[in-house]
Amino acid sequence: MRYVxxxxxATSLLLLGAVTSLGSAGAxxxxxxxxxxxxxxxxxALGTSGALxxxxxxxxDSLSSVDxxxxxAPSAFSKLTAVRASxxxxxxxxxxxxxxxxxxxxxxxxxxxQAEVTQSSVDLAxxxxxxxxxxxxxxxxxLNLAKLTSAADASSAKSALNASLTNAKVAxxxxxxxxxxxxxxGATTSTETTSTRAVNVDALTVLDLGAVLDGLxxxxxxxxxxxxxxLLTTLKVPVPGLDPAANLNTTIDAIxxxxxxxxxxxxxxxxxxxxxxGSVVTTLGLGGVIPTADIDAINALATPLAQxxxxxxxxxxxxxxxxxxxxxxxDGTALLKLNGVDVSATTKAVxxxxxxxxxxxxxxxxxxxGNLSFAALDLGQAVDTLNATVASVNDTLSKTLGEIKIPxxxxxxxxxxxxxxxxxxxxxxxxxxxxxxxxxxxxxxxVTASIKPPTDLAALVAGIKAQTVGGTSIxxxxxxxxxxxxxxxxxxxxxETTLGTGVQALQDGANVNVVEVLALSEFKxxxxxxxxxxxxxLAATGAESSQLTALGLLLVALGLGLGRWFAxxxxxxxxxxxxxx
Length: 581
Hints:
This protein is α+β, with helices and mostly antiparallel strands. The chain has 3 domains: about 1-25 and about 530-580, no CATH class; about 35-215 and about 335-520, no CATH class; about 240-330, no CATH class. Helix content is about 35%, strand content about 35%. It has 14 helices and 23 strands. Helix 5 (about 250-265) runs antiparallel to helix 8.
């Protein structure tokens, strides 16, 4: 009987080991977690900390949670705000208080709200609700189809959003976005939490040259012809009507020299050889400025002297037209254009740090400063390549704006450090354990453009305005030729008028951020269930589970060893004792 009991014990060890081992192998860790994040497609802040105007365009926020730390029951929401604007200098006429405005705020929420919300189209300049007069002229665009969803049950929660925006303009031509698409997805279950943000911008113009200068109280018409020529040359901006490779100063000098020669011919009672007016115009590169009909009319005059006088008038008129065209061309030039922007942030949190992840992506199809093109940018590029392109863009901006300068006592003051830009800047990428939660966070900003005026801006502005009073500005040159100074963009003037009397929009600087995304996932392991869904007698997680597995294997081995020992032949002496019992 003693051996029977021992054999039974060995069998029990085998069974217990097998159960222990199999039970731990099928375990799946459960827990609680939360997914959340936010996106801002455009953020423009004028003045110190956005005191003059702070605009958040197309912003979203979302959350999905099955954690009682966040909500008593599983819950989810997704929220989209088309425009959020505030100002400390501009009052809202509906409240007579400083502007604090929200336009077209949509929300899906479960439980306690709508599971799905859709919005077909909203004109942000005319949203259908009371807004301050003039606001629609400084914040505009069309919010197209937007769809928000949320869902929550006993063990999961999720939220999602898709929206698009077209023809968006903000703050006096400081930003122009042609087409924007944004999306989010967040999901939380008992085993993992995920969060994703993604934004695509088709074409983007940031910092119109004329608007930036106007915001500093500097007008292009106050610049000298030399300063205008330097800007055109640096930015590779052609003058309409002239050959794209033509230099403004060289063209002006050639025209003035030909006019002087023709005047001398008139004074000597000689003139053009019949039919040569066209060749003069062609040689000067003015074929796109002086119409063929005007040349034919000159050639039809009866005498060479009359033809010469008519050509002098035509060339002086062409000179005025060239200067006016140069002004208009620069006024519509963007300091920064981006050909396609794509960024995303994705996070996942599970029961282990090793299994959790955080990542972001970023691409810009190409960068243009004026008419100078730079290579595409991609976070997948070598860091040195990416940094070299960004440095080259900033160097070009510095060189361009450095042409706007005025001599002062002790040197010069210029705008070479007025604008700086950053591209594809990660804001956070971490995976860690915080207070028992495995937390993954990822964030990135596609573009940041900063405007920082020189400390002696007042001296620069005064010096440039003095050029017009002194008769050396391009406006004075146009008027001296009998021409009319062209009307430049009034976008910045409209902005400043809307903000209030005496406001100079950029004198205290500004920041323009384009596409900011942030995603966060957190998960806290709490209980273990078996692979079959039935609760085991020895619940464990993590290291405890592996310890139980090892114990089970040890028991199996012990049981097998006892079994083999009993199968061995007994020594003769032992056999005799067995029968003697």
